[in-house]
Amino acid sequence: MRNIWDMVHGLKPAMIMMMVQTGFAGLNVFYKLAANDGMSLKVLIAYRSMFAAAFILPLALLVERKSRPKLTWVVLFQAFLCGLLGGSLAQNLYVESLYLTSATFIAAMTNLVPAITLLLAISFGMERLRFGTLAGKAKVMGTLMGIGGAMILTFYKGVEIDIWSTHIDLLHNGQLSGSHVTSPDKLLGSLLALANCLSYALWLIVQAKMSATYPCYLSSTALMNVMGSIQAVVYALCTERDWSRWKLGWNIRLLTVAYSGIVPSGVMVVLIAWCVRLKGPLYVSIFNPVLVILVAIAGSLILNEKLHLGSILGTMLIICGLYLVLWGKGKDVKRTTRLVPLKSYGQSESLEDVITSTTNNDSNNSNNINTNSNGNMTCITANSLQTVDEEI
């Protein structure tokens, strides 16, 4: 019985990450259903940001009331940028792309975030490519594969893959029923998806800097959500003057904004933080492609989304590119850690212990557990970049 309990305890992080990805997959489905019901996407994001801020702010005030550092104008400006890049702007781009394409498409495109973040980090001098090493070549190859996969997803459709058919279509009587996506719409949706990935990658860079000056993950997340909610509400008020579009009622609209604000932006933050502290950032990153599989299954089962050969090939390339980038990043972290001298030649800690300790210490500094509720990608990539940058 003891062995069974130990095995279950060892599988707990994996089971929690599967729950996290399932929660994010549900977010994509709810977005699609709310848009199909005629809800304004701008209003949806505004309500979601308000729900998220209302959920996380009391937790931050309660849990970190004694450990919170002094709030400065620099931190407020960083929170404003985080709220914009990782909140209001990124989320509006995300839902607009989701509306114009499909849940499976946008879930696959979000896996480009690590590659885009890598390119930005190299441009800003936060990352060293080291092309002469195997890790450097893997990161370059992974980035190119991700870009190639995104191009296949956008421009190549291919034959339809009919794996199963449940004859269930929750969009059958709404605005998204039927084949509403035309080629111009898909191209615009693809550009919006790329812009979302770019915005999110920029947020990771800014968030890494904010974590260094304000190392309280609940408080910084609360600040970001408050700033993002103000921006999203102002944007929605300027573009949606019809107050009837702001009404929720006891329907799919209220369920969507409550779920998106509380579950991905609140509960998932805590679960991801726990997993990153226990297993490190790369462990959490490898579960991101699970979202694509879950969304594809849900979309084909209940949203009547069709799978095509181009979608499958493009998704596979993006996922393979993601793992190459993460593998190269992991090699860089281990290589840099080996350069850290031990206290004495007789020190009994193994190299693996040193690596684990370094990762856990970075986690305790909260540089890797701020998350945005935009989708499945958290600031794990930013933490990896910051870890290497600090150790170098």
From TrEMBL:
Membrane-spanning segments: 12-31, 43-63, 75-94, 100-126, 138-156, 187-205, 217-237, 257-276, 283-303, 309-328
Keyword Ligase carried by entry: no
Entry protein name: WAT1-related protein
Organism this protein belongs to: Liquidambar formosana
Highest taxon listed in the record's lineage: Eukaryota
Listed GO MF terms: transmembrane transporter activity
Family: Belongs to the drug/metabolite transporter (DMT) superfamily. Plant drug/metabolite exporter (P-DME) (TC 2.A.7.4) family.
Ranges of residues in domain EamA: 18-153, 188-326
Major subcellular site: membrane
Location relative to the cell: Membrane
Keyword Membrane: yes
Any one Gene Ontology cellular component term annotated for this protein: membrane
Keywords: Membrane, Transmembrane, Transmembrane helix
Membrane topology: Multi-pass membrane protein
